[in-house]
């Protein structure tokens, strides 16, 4: 994951350098697309966050807050402090993330 992020940063740096040479128009276009994409993803992440918080409030009302939604074990207190909206304990979260692949950074 770290290596991937570094690679993206390097690409962006290269693109910014290119914009100083003669190819500004095309690079500006692609940077605009990238910005649009980032804005879109931030919006998605924000509504996902709100949905997570709604879910957490619902679980507090149901009395199931702090219980792993997958295996039913209590979620570690420190994990809940770090991730108050966590639905799964660390073990199940890791399983779910590895099942989903690593094409997306999790917010949990
Ligand atoms: Zn679990």
The protein's oligomeric status is single chain
Order of helices and strands: HHHH
**End-to-end separation:** 15 Å
Distinct compounds present: zinc ion
Q: Per the principal axes of the C-alpha atoms, what is the gross shape? A: elongated
Mean pLDDT: 80
> Biggest sheet, in brief?
none
Number of helices: 4
**Helix percentage range:** 55-70%
Question: Could you outline the blueprint of secondary structure elements for this entry?
Answer:
Elements: H1 2-18, H2 24-62, H3 77-82, H4 90-100
The site of zinc ion (ZN) has 8 residues, from α4.
Offer a few descriptive terms.
single chain; 108 residues; mainly alpha; 0% strand; elongated; binds zinc ion
In brief, what are we looking at here?
The radius of gyration is 19 Å and the shape is elongated. The protein starts with a helix and ends in an 8-residue tail after the last helix.
Written account of the structure:
This protein has helices at 2-18, 24-62, 77-82, 90-100. The protein is mainly alpha-helical and 108 residues long. The mean pLDDT is 80. Bound molecules: zinc ion (ZN). Zinc ion is lined by residues 68, 70-71, 73, 88-89, 91-92.
């Amino acid at each position: 994951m770290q290596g991937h992020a570094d690679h993206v940063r390097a690409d962006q740096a290269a693109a910014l350098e290119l914009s100083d040479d003669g190819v500004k128009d095309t690079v500006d276009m692609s940077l605009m697309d990238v910005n649009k994409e980032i804005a879109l993803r931030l919006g998605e992440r924000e509504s996902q966050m709100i949905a997570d918080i709604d879910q957490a409030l619902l679980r507090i009302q149901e009395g199931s807050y702090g219980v792993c939604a997958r295996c039913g074990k209590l979620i570690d207190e420190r994990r809940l402090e770090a991730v108050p909206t966590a639905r799964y304990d660390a073990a199940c979260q890791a399983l779910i993330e590895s099942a989903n692949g690593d094409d997306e950074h999790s917010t949990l």
